[in-house]
């Protein structure tokens, strides 16, 4: 069942920086991508500053904080270095994600239940500084309950397992993952958490997730940057926006 409340779209610009960094120059510029995304209907910009700086750089974060008129969602690992950077910039939102050097992207959700005490202390100063704290987790009741206990205001459900199963033609598995996402959206909402979702979403997989009335925001990056090679960034984002709005109506 849909909801008439507008579903927000956060556009992740990390992979514009990946292309730039492949040549070590200044082009393409992630800040330019962020401005185009705003014009195309993005409600926020997401950027992940990794420990190894493999895509977004410190200068990109500085620039985004200066030029954006929509909120910045700052993705980061739970490290002292990243906490200091977040406290200096005070972005609208901070999303805590798992990060291992060898992974290609953020795989799986954060293990909150095992790290509850550490994470509670880690996010407290971020909340005090005025940033909304989001935790990127699997659709698992244990992790949702733990995120709620440590004082997160938002959870972002990892949609990767659903998207991967769909892409590989394992449709029964995709349906089961989708049912889990739906149930956990409802559960998290019942605890008073704001629910976001993201990872691996495409034109083919976005609509069922966008239709969950408890989900307030989707964060989508890699697919949109890839699609922009063929369509242009503005039309690629506009089409995602259209599919989301249609699913929501």
Describe the structure.
An 8-stranded parallel barrel has the order 1-2-3-4-5-6-7-8, surrounded by 8 helices. Helix 10 (222-231) packs across helix 11. The protein is built from 11 helices and 8 strands. With 249 residues, the protein is of the alpha/beta class. Mean pLDDT is 93; it is low at 101-106. The chain is globular and about 45 Å long.
Can I get a quick summary?
This protein has 249 residues and is of the alpha/beta class.
Give the topology, please.
Elements lengths: L7 E5 L1 H10 L6 H11 L3 E5 L9 H10 L4 E5 L3 H10 L3 E4 L19 H13 L3 E6 L3 H9 L4 E5 L1 H8 L3 H20 L3 E5 L7 H5 L4 E6 L1 H10 L1 H16 L1
Parallel strand pairs: 1-2, 1-8, 2-3, 3-4, 4-5, 5-6, 6-7, 7-8
Helix pairs in contact: 2-3, 2-11, 4-5, 7-8, 10-11
Give keywords.
49% helix; 249 residues; eight-stranded parallel beta barrel; 16% strand; globular; alpha/beta
């Amino acid at each position: 069942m849909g909801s008439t409340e507008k579903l927000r779209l956060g556009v992740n610009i990390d992979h514009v920086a990946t292309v730039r960094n492949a040549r070590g120059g200044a082009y393409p510029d992630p800040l330019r991508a962020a401005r185009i995304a705003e014009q195309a209907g993005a409600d926020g910009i997401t950027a992940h500053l990794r420990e190894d700086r493999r895509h977004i750089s410190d200068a990109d974060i500085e620039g985004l904080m200066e030029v954006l008129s929509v909120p910045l969602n700052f993705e980061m690992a739970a490290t002292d270095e990243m906490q200091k950077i977040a406290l200096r910039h005070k972005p609208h939102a901070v999303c805590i994600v798992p990060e291992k050097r060898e992974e290609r992207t953020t795989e799986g959700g954060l293990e909150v239940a095992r790290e509850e005490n550490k994470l509670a202390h880690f996010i407290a100063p971020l909340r005090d500084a005025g940033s909304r704290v989001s935790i990127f987790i699997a659709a698992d009741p244990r992790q949702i309950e733990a995120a709620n206990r440590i004082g997160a205001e938002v959870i972002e459900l990892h949609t990767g397992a659903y998207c991967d199963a769909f892409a590989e033609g394992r449709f029964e598995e995709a349906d089961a993952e989708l049912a889990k996402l739906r149930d956990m959206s409802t559960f998290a909402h019942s605890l008073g958490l704001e629910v976001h979702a993201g990872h691996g979403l495409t034109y083919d997989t976005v609509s069922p997730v966008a239709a969950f009335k408890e989900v307030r925001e989707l964060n989508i990056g890699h697919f949109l940057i890839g699609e922009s090679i063929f369509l242009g960034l503005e039309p690629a984002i506009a089409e995602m926006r259209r599919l989301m709005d249609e699913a929501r109506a």
